[in-house]
Structure formats: structure tokens, C-alpha cells
Amino acid sequence: MSDAQPSVQQIVEGVLFVFGQPIALKRLCDITQTDIPAIRAAVDALNQQYEAGGRAFHIQEVGGGYQFVTHQSLAPWIKRALQSPRPDSVSTAALETLAIIAYRQPLTKAEIEAIRGVDVTGSLDTLVEKRFVQIAGRKESPGRPFLYRTAPEFLRHFGLKSIEALPRMALPSVEEETAAEPIPAPAADSPSNG
Amino acid sequence: MKYEVDADIYEGPLPLLVELAKLNLIDVFLIKLVDLTRQYLQQVKASGANLNELAEPLPLLGSLIALKARGLLPEPPKPDEDEEVPISLEELARRLKEYEQFKTVAQLLAELHSLQHQHFTRQETPEAPEAPAESETPFDVSVAQLMGAFAKVLEKATAPVYEVKAELWTVEMKVKELRVLLTVKRSIRLLDLFTTEKTKLELVVTFLALLELIRQRVARALQERAFADIMIAVRETTE
Q1: CB count, 10 Å around CB of B114?
Q2: Contacts of A91 in chain B (CB under 8 A)
Q3: Given its phi and psi angles, is residue A131 left (phi above 0), alpha (psi -120 to 50 degrees) or beta?
């Protein structure tokens, strides 16, 4: 085993072991000179080995990259070891703003406020500061307001593989459907808004 | 935050009350808004702490008032061209429903967040190994990141604070200085702009001048790669 060329699995394991940040799938392909399915297979195989061997960690896919993470059950001890000063919590207000951005992005501050019904300057600042949200350009409307969208850090902190991995909203976007009324009304051609 | 109200015929969480009123399961006219308002004000006086939390019940309370006000009006007011189109009851109900959806999703996000924070990653590599130069191009640094970098500079400022008689440094002055510096050097490390023997005031003025130059598109802030030092470089003019 020592003389032979290292396997893709070994390379992936080694690289992930060294890095503290998620490594993009594409990057792993470049490093190992293989393709995406090969990397995925290697990660799956490694995770199976870890599970079978009862290891304390596994490889997690997050925001389009891979990283080593410890098991949930170890959290209390690791927190103790890290002596982390405070839980990195996000306020309810900020989470609501974040939810709106995540599902409706890109959108402006005014559009967020129209949904939340309150001023969102504070929570928006918090989200930008935490790098969950970033400015995605300007809207071509009066005042050219900033457009906001979620940033890669958002996916990492919420353990999401991609934006598509967000839980589905309970109801379809109310925008297109007037909801509540199950009338088929095929001929109703008058737009609901006056 | 759980915000509970007590309004004679109803006692319980506020969102449910709004929901019920919206669905006409509770007659809004039997709810005394005076009582709700008083309770809210008491709450504000009592806690006085977290503004975000205090603001939370406001949209709900506001929508209750709006619901009631609509009901009181004999006929819809004439649409004033200058003002927003008056919101219909259905529209209000729709907005509330939409908002409730996002509230639910926000709770889900909170769970995802705390779940993910039960998993620990390896500590960030202190010196990210050099990536092959061709694979990564320098990217623009945001103002927030500049502020962050500058905050570190301020922490290190050693010179004592003293009273300033005249304006020793002006932004204009520093802009000129930086322009000269950039013309000569083309590119300079952000941290090298701020030597620690300068006073906080001078550092701040320098930073303002830097922001001004970035605004004027004379300079730009770049990072070679993630976690690298921020570089200030001359922006090649395209005009």
C-alpha cells in the first residue's frame, strides 16, 4: 500500500483533513485529476468506512463543497474543548429577514420591508456583517436600490448543499395564486389586481 | 419572543388573535385596541431591552388596527393619486398569510442553524496553503471587510489621545498623499498605509481618504485569495 500510487479516496481524505474550510467539488477534481462522479464515490466510500469504523467525524457536503465535521453527539464536549464564548445565535427578526431573502432573492430592502411590515435595517446589517447575505447589484428602478441575495457563508452555517436544498415553503408563492379559493375558473382572465 | 395579549374575549398569543380576526372567527370590534396598546406600552417600559424584539408585535398590532379601521369606514375612501392605493381586506389577509409563511420558514432555518452548529469543522487553517496562482483571480473586497480590517488597525493604535487645537489632518490632504503614494507604488498593502505610531484621528482620516479614493474609482481594494492581506491598487482608468 505504501509504494503504490495513492487512491483518489486517499487524496480526498488527505486534502480534506488539512483544510479548515469546505473545498469545492471542482477543486477536488482538479487536485485528483478525476471527474465529479469519482469524487462523489470516494466521499461516499469514505463516509461508509467512517461509519463502519465508528469514527467521530464524517464528510459533509455544504454549499457545493466538502469538509470534515464531527458528530452531533460530540457537541457538548467539543464546545467545552473550544471554550467558545457564546453560542453563535441569530435573532428571530434576522432569521425572518434571511428567510425572505433566501426564498425571494434577489430583492431590495423595500421589498423585504413590504413583507415583514417593519424596518429591516438592523437585521439586514447583521446579516451582511455575518456574511449570510450580500449585495447582488442594483435594481433598475427609481433610486437604483441595492439588491440582496444570500452568500456562500449562509449555506455553510445552515448546513445546506445549495439554495435548492432549502426546505419547501408550505404554500406556493402567493404571488401567482390568489390562494384559499379552490375554484377552477378557467375563463377568469381578469388580473386579480386592480 | 412569545407575545401574549389579554383582550377580554381573547387571551393568548398575538399571532393567533390576528389569524382569527382575519378569518372572521373573532369579531375585531369586540377587541379593545386601547387595551392591547396599553399592554404593549407596558411591555416596552418594562423591558426596554431589545429593540428588535419590541418591534416584532408591531406589524401584527398594526394589521389589527388596519382591519378594524377598514371595518369602521362606511365606504372605501377615494383613492388619492399621490398616496398608495388603499389596501383591501383580502390584500391585507394575503400579506399576513405570506408573512406567516416566512415566519414558519424562519423557524425552520433556526433549527437548521442550531443543528449545523452541533457539527464542528476543523479550525480554519491559519496560513492557507498557496493555491496555484492561475486558478484564483483577485476579487474585490467589500466595504464591510475593509471596515473589519481597519478595526484591527485601530486596536493597535498606541499613541495617546490628546486635545486637538486645529485640524491637523484633513481628508483632502490625505487623499493627495495617498494619490501620490499610489502613483509611485501602484499597489500597497492596506496595513502598510496605517503605521501604528499614528494617532487614531490620523488613522481615521487616512481611512476616510482611502474610502474616498475608492469611491472616486481611483483606487480599488483587492485580495489575492481568501484570507490574504488586502491590497490597495490603482484602478486602471477605462474612460
Answers
A1: 15
A2: 50, 52-53
A3: left
DSSP, collapsed to helix, strand or coil, labels residue A121 as: helix
Whole-complex ipTM: 0.72
| CATH architecture of the domain formed by A8-81 | Orthogonal Bundle (1.10)
Is the Cβ pair A117, B121 closer than 8 Å? no
- Tens of pLDDT, residue by residue over A132-164, are 999 888 888 888 899 999 998 899 889 898 888
Residue A48 region, left (φ>0) first, then alpha (ψ -120 to 50), else beta? alpha
Q: Is residue B81 in a domain?
A: no
Among all chains, which residue has been given the C-alpha cell 502598510?
B192
> How many CA atoms within 13 Å lie on the side-chain side of B223?
14
Instruction: For residue B211, list its beta bridge partners.
Output: none
**Residue B102 shares a structural domain with residue B168:** no
Query: Could you say which residues from 20 to 79 on chain B have a Cβ atom under 8 Å away from some Cβ of chain A?
Result: 50-53, 55-56, 58-59, 62-63
Q: Which of A20, A75, A169 has its CB closest to that of B101?
A: A169
- The ranges of chain B with pLDDT < 50 are 127-135, 239
Asked if residue B91 and residue B173 are part of one domain, the reply reads no
| Global confidence as pTM | 0.49
